[in-house]
Amino acid sequence: MRKNQFTGLTCAVAVVMACTSISPALASGPIELVVAYSAGGVSDLMGRNLAANIESGLNQKMIVQNRPGAAGMVGTDFVFKAKPDGQTVLLARIATLAVAPNLQKVPYDPAGFTPLGLIATDPFVCVTSSRKNLSTVDEVREVLTERPGTLTYSSSGVGSLNQFAVLRFLEELGVEQPLRAAAHIPSQGEGPALTAVAGGHIDLFCGNVGPVMPQVQSGTVKALFVTSQERIEGLEEVPTVKELGLDGLEEIVGWSALIGPPNMDEQTVSNYVVALDKVKNEEAWLRFIKKMGSEPRILNPTETSEFIAQQQDLYKDMALRMGIKK
């Protein structure tokens, strides 16, 4: 494992967790939680629900500010350059911290933020069209073996998590050159990519459980597996990758984390750790996470730093190994 590069981790987690359950206010005025995407999307919903549930633990008002642009990089850079006083924090997503920096130049240091806590992971589900004779992983493997290059898969674009998920799946099946083994058909967003599969125009799509689950439940697509560690409520008949012997796919998950600008002080970090520790037991929060098709996973700053670093290494390795570039 590489050396932890995140800042703001000098405080001992054991000391932080011994703090009182109600933190003193960080400063005067409301905290700005930056969501680097437009209102109404998954990130926005996650941010607004986090804000509503964390305020009592922080003893301070938190408001969500949507700062979209450049696929999340505008809002992410805004927080990176903010004052490290705890009044401006970011709902970080995997795309801007772990994927994009390995495909293109970004205006911020992805390892320079102060991690405050991972809050949830978003398992992937891979699906095929109900109009196709591809109901199992073995049938996908058969197509790859007998008719190499004929399998098609959709995504929201080159270098997207959807594309990485399929390529990692192909690797787990033993394919040596994933980019050549199947034809990538990018779309303008995940919605159109999933619709193309549901309509029988494309063979395969991998995406977060939440948006895909309704299509699975309606029968327009068939789910091959989920990348969660356990079977998911609402998709109880869908096996996990571990059950299928594809353990390496468990690392393919989306995620959200709360992070701040570089060099936040120990007391400010402690305030957030205590507040997040309170959130993880809130029934309203747990219900929301499960409704989104996500899994609650609140980690302390050290654990969060290690998790994000592992994810950064994963996509760096895949991008280099497969030759994926923006």
Structure notes:
This protein is of the alpha/beta class and 326 residues long. It is 39% helix and 19% strand. The protein is built from twelve helices and ten strands. The strands form two sheets. Strands 1, 2, 3, 4, 7, 8, 9 and 10 form an eight-stranded mixed sheet that branches. A two-stranded parallel sheet has the order 5-6. Helix 2 links the parallel strand 1 (31-35) and strand 2. Helix 2 crosses helix 10 and helix 2 packs antiparallel against helix 11. It is globular. The protein starts with 12 loop residues before the first helix and ends with a helix. The model is unreliable at 7-25 (pLDDT under 50).
Short summary:
The chain is α/β, with parallel strands linked by helices and 326 residues long.
Shape: globular
DSSP, total strands: 10
Calculate the terminal CA-CA distance, rounded to whole Å.
Answer: 27 Å
What's the total helix number? Answer: 12
Radius of gyration: 20 Å
H and E string: HEHEHEHEHEHHEHEHEEHHEH
Share of β-strand residues: 15-25%
Low-confidence stretches: 7-25
**Average residue-wise pLDDT:** 90
Largest sheet: 8 strands, mixed
Helix content range of the residues, please? 25-40%
**Oligomeric assembly:** single chain
Structural class: alpha/beta
List keywords for this structure.
12 helices, alpha/beta, single chain, 10 strands, globular
Explain the layout of strands and helices.
Blueprint: H1 13-17, E1 31-35, H2 42-58, E2 62-66, H3 73-80, E3 88-93, H4 94-99, E4 114-129, H5 137-146, E5 151-155, H6 161-172, H7 178-181, E6 182-186, H8 190-198, E7 204-208, H9 209-218, E8 221-226, E9 253-260, H10 266-279, H11 283-291, E10 295-296, H12 301-322
Parallel strand pairs: 1-2, 1-3, 5-6
Antiparallel strand pairs: 3-9, 4-7, 4-8, 4-9, 4-10
Helix pairs in contact: 2-10, 2-11
